[in-house]
Amino acid sequence: MTSKEIREKFFEFFRARDHRIVPSAPIVVKNDPTLMFTNAGMNQFKDIITGSRKAEHMRIADTQKCLRVSGKHNDLEEVGHDTYHHTMFEMLGNWSFGD
Q1: In degrees rounded to 5, what are phi and psi of residue 60?
Q2: Residues 79, 35, 25: CA angle, nearest 5 degrees
Q3: Whole-angstrom Cα distance, residue 91 to residue 63?
């Protein structure tokens, strides 16, 4: 199964369960001084999770492009030592905000 097929099946599954499919946020973060790069799927929903912004949709699914090169989730030092650590990857996510 290709990554495109996995992504399509993922979205198909959550679309059938009334999730709104949203695009990946930019990998370079512009409106959060605590992050240089998007390193997790929850980054674009941080304001909703902390309660400072109301969710436009109760159920959301996305595939977020992430970059991990520093900080707590630094995968940079592990790249090349195994087959599963990478600095850039897509994180599949499904979210329920007050549902």
Answers
A1: -135, 145
A2: 85
A3: 5
Q: Total structural domains in the chain?
A: 1
Which residue segment(s) compose the domain that 41 sits in? 3-96
Tell me the three state secondary structure of residue 81: coil
**CATH number for position 87:** 3.30.930.10
Give the largest CA-CA distance in the chain: 42
| pLDDT tens-digit series, residues 50-88 | 999 999 999 999 999 998 776 666 666 777 777 776 778
What is the dihedral angle through the alpha carbons of 23, 58, 94, 79, rounded to the nearest 10 degrees?
60
pTM of the prediction? Answer: 0.79
